[in-house]
Amino acid sequence: MRGQAAITQVNGEDHEAHVQNGDGGGGYIDQRIDVLGGYVADHRIPAALAVEAASETVAACARQGYHETAAVLDADGATIVTLRGDGAGIHSIDSAHDKAYTAVSFKNDTLALAGRANGEESIAALAKLPHVMFFGGGVVIKLGDEVIGSIGAAGAPGAKLDDGCAKAGLDKIRDRLK
After folding, report:
1. CB 124 within 8 A of CB 113
2. Backbone torsions φ then ψ of 148, nearest 5 degrees
3. For residue 153, which of 93, 64, 77 has the smallest C-alpha distance?
4. Rounded CA gap, 101 and 107, in Å?
5. CA angle, corner 136, sides to 147 and 41, nearest 5?
6. Domain ranges (residues) in the chain
């Protein structure tokens, strides 16, 4: 499906939708949609890179003796992959997802968001929303300034430990994001 284009009509005018898939080597998917004269670029994380990030997140914690689960979500908050490491508690599946969901939804790492959950201008009330968790371990995946996904990690005995493992997963794939 590389380079295919479809013509659509908006208010009687033709507008082009362009989709370009990666090169098969772990590249990216770049979607451009011309809507009323403007372009929206949308970059996606290939499943192969998501699996690598999740695997490294779990492995980084395992090397420290922790039983971890990792979830990688796309920019829309949809799950690409979830990996429950050996011995990780069943609750860590939901926790990893919710940390990743919070990070991608708020476009910020959850460790930073946890700091904003206290004080006069607290965002703590937003934790009542489904899948929102202000607890370290959710890390955004960015391409430049664009948030293209997130990694959630859960299972280590502390938010900073989960955060470090998620960052190890991100570091594993960072230079191959395009």
Report:
1. no
2. -110, 0
3. 93
4. 10
5. 5
6. 4-44, 47-176
Q: Over the stretch 114-130, which tens digit does the pLDDT of each residue have?
A: 999 987 889 999 999 99
- Burial degree of 135 (CB within 10 A; 0-12, 13-18, 19+): buried
Q: Return the pLDDT at 113.
A: 96
What does the CA dihedral 108, 176, 144, 171 come to, rounded to 10 degrees? Answer: 40
Are the CB atoms for 89 and 155 separated by under 8 Å? yes
CATH of 47-176, one of 3.30.450.150, 3.30.1310.10, 3.40.50.300, 3.30.70.260: 3.30.450.150
- Helices 159-173 and 47-63 cross at an angle (nearest 10°) of 140
